[in-house]
Amino acid sequence: MLRQDDGFxxxxxxxxxALIRAHQGLGDxxxxxxxxxxxxxxxxxxxxxxxxxxxxxxxxxxxxxxEPESGCA
Length: 73
What we know:
By secondary structure, this protein is mostly helical. 66% of the residues lie in helices and 0% in strands. The chain is globular. The N and C termini lie far apart (38 Å).
């Protein structure tokens, strides 16, 4: 199960800023490559296939939260 507590002990804004800084000066392809490498490194750090699968599912679900509703009726 994925953690529900504040894993950054009140420092989530600093973690977010570090991620943003890591992308500064990179083009789209370099930024995508950085994200891919970071995901693989963190997946290795997690080291638990069930937790990784849960995180992947959560990330995919969160994509749908940001999609505009289709105006088709």
